[in-house]
Amino acid sequence: xxxxxxxxxxxxxxxxxxxxxxxxxxxxxxxxxxxxxxxxxxxxxxxxxxxxxxxxxxxxxxxxxxxxxxxxxxxxxxxxxxxxxxxxxxxxxxxxxxxxxxxxxxxxxxxxxxxxxxxxxxxxxxxxxxxxxxxxxxxxxxxxxxxxxxxxxxxxxxxxxxxxxxxxxxxxxxxxxxxxxxxxxxxxxxxxxxxxxxxxxxxxxxxxxxxxxxxxxxxxxxxxxxxxxxxxxxxxxxxxxxxxxxxxxxxxxxxxxxxxxxxxxxxxxxxxxxxxxxxxxxxxxxxxxxxxxxxxxxxxxxxxxxxxx
Length: 309
Description:
Layout lengths: L13 E6 L4 E5 L21 E2 L6 E6 L5 E6 L7 E7 L7 E6 L5 E7 L6 E5 L7 E7 L5 E9 L25 E2 L5 E7 L5 E6 L8 E7 L7 E6 L5 E7 L6 E5 L7 E7 L5 E10 H26 L1
Parallel strand pairs: 1-9, 3-5, 12-14
Antiparallel strand pairs: 1-2, 4-11, 5-10, 6-9, 6-11, 7-8, 7-10, 13-20, 14-19, 15-18, 15-20, 16-17, 16-19
């Protein structure tokens, strides 16, 4: 499923929380901004930086190690925690670097985004109120990187989500994941360790439901097929694997929140190909079938007893 997609909404994955005062970093997961991509032109230097709108991702491309994309954003009230997220949207590429600077050009934070379909996010809790900060994106080789950048202010209202993910068609990141309705199967193929198949599903409104996420590795004699479940913040909740023996690998979980979207990433660790089938359903569907079968068996038994009498 090698393909290039236009990203139109953003979540979070690997997150870095940094403190300028103590100089420490901690890996955490944070809530993401979600919205349609904005047409903001980056600058080539700090003074010409493109102005970002909070909670609205901007996308673009970097071409080579001497190319930089500069953006700026202005903070609001004091005490706000901002999340600066960057997605490397070029599958199989090297790292994408991003740095945060103050108005004096002093580097405050830095991080790097891998091409694994998840964004990397810096969480900054010590930015000054009503102050402009600057973001520089760059790479260290002569390739190209497509990227999506967002600065999230959790106190500001998030714009409407617009997703280009197609039903039952895999995306190449969690931002354009194809949706799978409960009880339906999605199928496809993964080609190599730098290829990913992303899907999403939404739980039912009723709380307390138990869900079964199953994946079949449809390539006989192949190595394992891996699948992971992520929440809307990019945190890994469950992981599973499917052998090539014709049986599905299955995750059964009862800890998913109602009326919430979750994400599935399928991947392999070699340069081969895997055909796959994914199915998500609630276990109550099986319970209904079992209850119906039990009811039919009881009715048949009663009818047999009545006939004998």
